[in-house]
Amino acid sequence: MKEEIEKNQPELSGFGPLQVLQWVVKNIDRPVFASSLGQEDQVILHLIAAHRLPIPVITLDTGRLFPETYDLIAETESRLSVKIRILFPDAAEVETMVAEEGINLFLKGVDQRKRCCQVRKINPLRRVLRESGGWICGLRQEQSSTRSELKVIEWDEANKVPKINPLYNWSLAQVVAYLKENGVPYNPLHDQGFISIGCACCTRAVQPGEDIRSGRWWWETPEQKECGLHLVNGKFVRSKDLEKSHE
């Protein structure tokens, strides 16, 4: 399966985002679009809605999102006439974690922060991906050093499904232009310097000249700034990296 998926990279690399999504509909069984309601995700969601593509949309409610993000979910469903399935962490897992580490455990260290992300984000997503044939993401090469070699389609080793990145080679300027030209709703926090938006407790505005994702877990070093959704063994890994590790 992995080899078959990666054979499509040359063809898909020449496609635009809409063409990529249309290819997914024809070639991937039970795909799902995992949205965080970020700017990139709103572009993809608009394409899905505008072209009536049969791709289910999900999002993760960690329980600690910004009020603006919750408002955007409702606004997006209303204006784009789409239904967004909201996933929640297991209540027992959250209760155990907080009892053992405290409500703000993510400030204690990287391991504690990753545990929080694991419980609130990764586990709920993986429960859905077990039933899916592939997932679509809003990742872009420009977002961070860990994503600079991102491909349009890759094998997700952690979840054993293909991961499709329709906007992998888009710039932030292209994303913003698309939203404005098409009147797509977006999080008002973006206008206040918040470029990458996650949980309210782990996100701050980005200052001029800073990396796009510098507002996420700003107390950690750049190579640590992944929640784990796109990691294998703690690293942002592509299939070619996995092959090298076994040489």
Characterization of this structure:
The protein has helices spanning 2-6, 9-13, 17-27, 39-50, 67-80, 91-101, 110-129, 172-182, 239-245; strands at residues 31-35, 57-60, 84-87, 134-136, 153-156, 161-164, 231-232, 235-236. By secondary structure, the protein is an alpha/beta fold. The protein has a single domain (2-245), classed as HUPs (Rossmann fold), CATH 3.40.50.620. The protein has a six-stranded mixed sheet with strand order 3-2-1-4-6-5, with helices on both faces. It has a two-stranded antiparallel ribbon with strand order 7-8. Helix 4 crosses helix 8 (172-182) and helix 6 runs antiparallel to helix 7. The longest helix has 20 residues, at 110-129. The chain is globular, with a radius of gyration of 17 Å. Mean pLDDT is 88; it is low at 230-247.
Write the layout of secondary structure elements.
Blueprint: H1 2-6, H2 9-13, H3 17-27, E1 31-35, H4 39-50, E2 57-60, H5 67-80, E3 84-87, H6 91-101, H7 110-129, E4 134-136, E5 153-156, E6 161-164, H8 172-182, E7 231-232, E8 235-236, H9 239-245
Parallel strand pairs: 1-2, 1-4, 2-3, 4-6
Antiparallel strand pairs: 5-6, 7-8
